[in-house]
Structure formats: structure tokens, C-alpha cells
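Hey, can you fold this one?
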Amino acid sequence: MLLSNSRTFNIRPANRTDARAIRRLLDENWAVHTRILSTYIQDKLDEYVAFLAEDRISVRGFLMLEPQPPDSSLLVATAVHDNIKVLSMLEALFSPAESALQAQNIKSIMQIGEAPWLTRELPKLGFVIKDHIITFEWYRSPLPQIRPHPRLQIRSARLDDLPTLLELDRLAFGPMWHKPKTAFREALSRAVSFAVGVIGHELVAYEWCDQFGDRAHLTRLATHPDYEGMGIGTQILHYALQTLTQFNVKVVSLNTQKNNLRSQELYQRFGFRRTPEEIGVYWKELAT
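Sure. Predicted structure:
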């Protein structure tokens, strides 16, 4: 139970029957941060760790965390009703959520984004800034000429590529950036472009792009470490941008780590321009 402003709230796990009330909280209040559309909340309640605070009238606070392999989690959504003290509500929601994560052998929580109402409270909850993310955008500038790899074949990704994609993701990115299997499975059915690069029978690279109207986001671009420096990433990026122009995309964005200078050089060669946006990556190690 949470006592705030002389009002008592019940803290409990959220389930699918709560989806309508949670969406109302997300849609009608100011202190809201979410990485997914509110219409997808119901489907995710069965997959993610989610807790809510309620009174006799409605849901007043909500927290959802996505477990990510091998042992981290990502803050996907949180909201606090306008009339509730933010820090008190977050403390009440994080406490059972962290216990639920630890029961799944999850050792850390990551938050990516600069929602001021949230990030100013995170240090009080034990979070520290671990990294910074910067954004680049491409406005359909002419693509550079490239020298294709003589043996590389690019094709659309298939569901039977999933185990190999997960392994490639593990090899190409550090643990805090790994995407879960559910995210890959969903992207294979929804992404506007999801292609793989193959040499012989080996999958060596992939790109994954999501579309939002006339904008798109390059969600993932990865090359197997054994095949880096061969121009494969360049060729895959070229393919992705060519594909997006066929879908009338006007702007393509992407995120990368501030210290990843090698990737930034590649994007700038294709005409991507850095935006002023810089996003903090907040991290909390859970007690063992």
C-alpha cells in the first residue's frame, strides 16, 4: 500500500484487464514516458514486468519493464497521475518491480531518454548516467557510390533466420544493447525493411528499419565481427536507404553511442547529419 497526500493506493501487478485504465492514464496525464504506443500496452502486459497503483476510482501510477537477455531490463513505460507526487509513486512502483526482475535473474535496469520529469528523479532511485546516445538524420541526400562485396547477397530476413540474428546481435553489441527475441520476432512481421547479408550459407549482417508515416528509423545495423572492414555494413546501409526511398520516406533517423566514432563516420559519408539531441542512458544495478 502507498500513502500519498492522505490517499491510499493499492500496488499490484498489472494484467490485460487493466489495459483500458492504463491507456487512459498514459493519454490524459503529463508525467508520462513510453517507448511503445499505448495501443500495444495490452499485448505487452503478458510479456513484461508491469505494476500499477490504483485507488477506488482508477489507476494512478504505472511502470512497465522489458527483460532483455541475458540479465538486464529496459524501462518501457511509466506514468504518474497529475495529482500525485512523482517520486513517492516511482519509489512505490519500482520496489515490487525490482523484486520481480530479480526473481527472473535480472541484474540491472536501463532507461534511455530525456523525459525531464522522470530523469530528475532517477538518481534518487539509484540510477547513474552510463552513456550518451546521439541522433543522426538523413534527408534523401544522394547516396555515395560503393564497391559491392563480390560474394555478398542481400535478401529479406525470414523467421527461420531468428536464431542466427539473435546470435549476431549478441556478437555485434554489448550486453546493455541486446534486443530480446520478442522484439526481433515482432520486427520480422512489422518492419518496413528487414534484410540480411549472406556470404555462402553464413548470415553476416542485417539491417532493420521501422516506418512512421513519411519518416523512418534505422533501428539496427550490424555486421558480424569476423566480417568487419570489408564494406559489408556500407552495402547493407546503402540497400536500406534505397529501400526506404521506395516507400516515400522523406527523413531517416538513427541513434548511436556518442563515442562510436567509426559508425558516425559511416553515417556522415551517406549524408546523415547530427541533430542537437543527446540522450542520457541511465543505469541501475539491482542488489544481489
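The CA atoms of residues 207 and 221 lie 5 Å apart. Let me know if you want another pass with a different chain boundary.
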